[in-house]
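Ticket #4471: structure output looks truncated?

Reporter: J.K.
Steps to reproduce: submitted the chain below (268 residues) through the standard prediction queue, then opened the result file.
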Amino acid sequence: MKLELDGHAAYAYTGGRPFDAALPGIVFVHGALHDHSVWIQQSRYLAHHGHSVLAVDLPAHGRSGGTPLGVEAAGDWVARLVQACGLGRVALVGHSLGSLIALEAAARLGERASALAMVGTAYPMKVSAALLQLALDDPLRGMKLVNQLSISGHASKPSHPGPGFSLHGGNLALMRRTHAGHRAGNLFHADFAACDAYAGLAQAAPRVRCPVTLVLGARDQMTPPKATAELVKALTPRVITLPSGHALMGEAPDALLDALREVLQAGA
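Returned output as attached by the reporter:
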């Protein structure tokens, strides 16, 4: 689905079903150097089982125009997109950088947010100075490093989870394509700098009015489960841990979907 927001194209994938604002809504927010496609399995299932789905492309990512935004500004953008689509109450699901953006969107939507799921998350989501510099000096090398750290095994079930699909190859190709699609600057550095800079938990948490769930990968090297202590203290969430690395959507697609179905039931 294509919209216009702030004078730029804004794209949201609806899961292969016509968008119907009267149905319970769920918004998926991708992470750094990703787009809506990382949520294909979960978004398609829920769109075909009674939900209005918006798997967004954040500004400067995928099919959405504009410039990269910091976490707070991106959270505001997501909240305004929800309003522009005419959704009432909506669940918010975000991965990595997108988890922080979903948190900010939930804070802005208040009672209109029915549930918040933060997948592969951490706070603070600090990024090493070496990786930020590598993003500037040699983006492809940096992407390969991030790819290696994001996926906990060589393959899963096997591969993606079916033969002929590569988690490593697919994720690297997506990062390269997303980075190349933003020609006005270095999207790799902008996304990871946004993760590193975010310090808004204390301001956002008191404004979140919905149940919160953290869905974590036990083998996650990018946002290890131990890095969620401040989120647990501020949000008192339910915590679900899956046998996965950082790329939960691809490594544990069925288990993640089951977790999200529980999240939606709790927020109904």
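Triage note (M.O.): checked the attachment and the full token line is present. The domain at 2-126+198-267 is CATH 3.40.50.1820 (Rossmann fold).
Status: closed, working as intended.
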